[in-house]
Amino acid sequence: MLVKCSNNTLCSSLTIGKEYLVIDEGDKYYVILDDTQNEITTKKDRFTVVEDSDLAKKTKATITELNYQLTNDFSDIKDFKIRKNSKGEIKEIIVKFKYE
Question: What is the pTM of this model?
Answer without folding.
Answer: 0.55
